[in-house]
Amino acid sequence: MTTPKVPAADATLRLLTLLASRRSPVPAARLAEELGLPRSRTYDLLTTLVEHGYVLHLDQERLYGLGPAAHELSGAYLRQEPLARIGRRVIEAMVDEVGESGHLAVLHGRDVLYVIEERARNRPSLVSDVGVRIPSHLTASGRAILAELPPAQLRALYGHAADFTARTEATGPSRPKELRELLVRVRAEGIAREQGEVTEELASVAAVVRDHAGWPAAAVALTFVERDADEERRERCAEAVRRAADEITRRLRGRPTDERTGERR
């Protein structure tokens, strides 16, 4: 026996699924056309979803995209067992290979939330641990994820100077423009970095993990003592997080990056 559908719920879920498949916001008319819904009903659904934060309305462009609440749901799923099961062995192997402490984190609002923490032997203690949240703009993990968000989503998270905080005396981005410029460099290199902005004397490198749709699902990072790491050591860590992120992406049926170009395959 087929379970009867709830029309409003079915339309809402199809709308969110369609938005999730797009790399950038789209007009309401296109959503209505692709879903086969009346425009009036589509606007009603969008209005409700905007009110609850699941959809973001860009007034000037007249476009709609996923809102912060939708990303919260995505993060909640990834924080649970599936991502931990998929990523734990990969993180352990990376830490064993490099000898530095490694992490896997997801975006949770403006913070990154650590879901896997693997400490290397004889390395310094860290503030990060499973369940700990740290402002994403300060961390290598957070920057790796933020660099892959659509501009509208980034503006929703970091659109004002009041959205930025600091943990140490190290200078990090404190305004939207500074963050955008930093993320341009992250996208160009395919690696995010931070130096002393989370914990003094420690630095980190990170690479993004993508899900089956190519969206940033998490980030892999390594943390090391800054003064002990020469350029060769830093690049070895960068290559290690890139390989680990690609492997977790593959296991999530995502799209790994090309090791030669840093571009998505």
From TrEMBL:
IclR-ED domain location, by residue? Answer: 69-254
Q: Which UniProt keywords apply?
A: DNA-binding, Transcription, Transcription regulation
Q: Which residues form a coiled coil?
A: none
One GO molecular-function annotation for this sequence? DNA binding
Q: Which organism is it from?
A: Brachybacterium ginsengisoli
Biological process according to GO: negative regulation of DNA-templated transcription
Transmembrane spans: none
Q: What is the lineage of its organism?
A: Bacteria, Bacillati, Actinomycetota, Actinomycetes, Micrococcales
Classification via Gene3D superfamilies:
3.30.450.40, Winged helix-like DNA-binding domain superfamily/Winged helix DNA-binding domain
Matches recorded under PANTHER family: HELIX-TURN-HELIX TRANSCRIPTIONAL REGULATOR, ICLR FAMILY, TRANSCRIPTIONAL REGULATOR ICLR
Q: Which residues form the HTH iclR-type domain?
A: 6-68
Q: What is this protein called?
A: IclR family transcriptional regulator
* The keyword Transcription is annotated on this UniProt entry: yes
